[in-house]
């Protein structure tokens, strides 16, 4: 069994559980197979999450919908099924600093990993540096091929600056290689309607927009309050509740004073 990489089943046979002894052989075998399958599934998920290098430890289930934003829960829940990956569609998320765009992008990446898809997260400034390093080390083609084969590529912080002609061509190459083949999430403060201003060559700008925007879901987050501020307030509130409960518990455990205590 170990040679077949069925380690959980091998351990269950070598270390039998007394609670399972009264079950039939078929029932015990079924339990062993299920535990082996769950162990392999969890191990694969951990590998996918590790390789994804998500910028935030974000989950769809933890998104706070009480904040005044122009996005609803149904939209996020629909995207969390990862149907857009199967259909090879993209997502554009824009919003001010603290609006939660990076969190949502990483939460979708987490969902994709749980659905068994390969995911990779990059901040665009760091990705462009990685591409330059790949060029200088003569591994550019291999690196770009790796990007092409990722089922969900998350590119965060688009538009922090205007791009050079070389950087624009690299972004176009990524867009072109993934067009109608894989899904990409692009997140940044700059709305997609202003992306033309980021690229020095109008032809390249048109090509990027044409290959990316027309088959994308657009999520424009417009929050009156920073998500970071909301999460900070929530943390403080939770801490206060914990402290209050702890203080109350201490009071309950305190002995009742008697006359001899005075």
From TrEMBL:
GO biological process, one term: DNA replication
InterPro entries according to UniProt: DNAC/IstB-like, IstB, IstB_ATP-bd, P-loop_NTPase
GO molecular function: ATP binding
Key words of the record: ATP-binding, Nucleotide-binding
Domain spans labelled IstB-like ATP-binding: 1-228
Presence of keyword ATP-binding: yes
Statement: the UniProt record of this protein carries the keyword Nucleotide-binding: yes
Protein name, per record: IS21-like element helper ATPase IstB
Lineage: Bacteria, Bacillati, Bacillota, Clostridia, Eubacteriales
């Amino acid at each position: 069994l170990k040679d077949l990489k069925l380690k959980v089943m091998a351990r269950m046979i070598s270390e039998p559980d007394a609670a399972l002894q009264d079950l039939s052989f078929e029932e015990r075998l079924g339990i062993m197979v299920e535990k082996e399958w769950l162990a392999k599934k969890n191990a694969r998920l951990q590998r996918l999450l590790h390789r994804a290098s998500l910028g935030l430890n974000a989950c769809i289930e933890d998104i706070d919908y009480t904040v005044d934003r122009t996005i609803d829960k149904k939209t996020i829940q629909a995207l969390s099924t990862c149907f857009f990956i199967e259909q090879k569609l993209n997502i554009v998320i824009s919003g001010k600093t603290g609006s939660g765009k990076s969190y949502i992008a990483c939460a979708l990446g987490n969902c994709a990993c749980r659905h068994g898809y390969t995911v990779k997260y990059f901040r665009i400034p760091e990705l462009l540096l990685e591409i330059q390093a790949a060029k200088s080390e003569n591994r550019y083609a291999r690196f770009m091929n790796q990007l092409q084969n990722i089922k969900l590529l998350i590119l965060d912080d688009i538009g922090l600056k205007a791009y050079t002609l070389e950087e624009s061509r690299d972004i176009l190459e990524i867009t072109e290689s993934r067009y109608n083949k894989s899904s990409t999430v692009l997140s940044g403060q700059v709305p997609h309607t202003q992306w033309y201003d980021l690229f020095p060559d109008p032809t390249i700008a048109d090509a990027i927009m044409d290959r990316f925007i027309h088959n994308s879901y657009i999520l424009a987050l417009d929050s009156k309050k920073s998500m970071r501020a909301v999460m900070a307030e929530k943390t403080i509130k939770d801490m206060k509740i914990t402290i209050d409960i702890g203080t109350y518990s201490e009071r309950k455990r305190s002995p009742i004073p008697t006359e001899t205590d005075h």
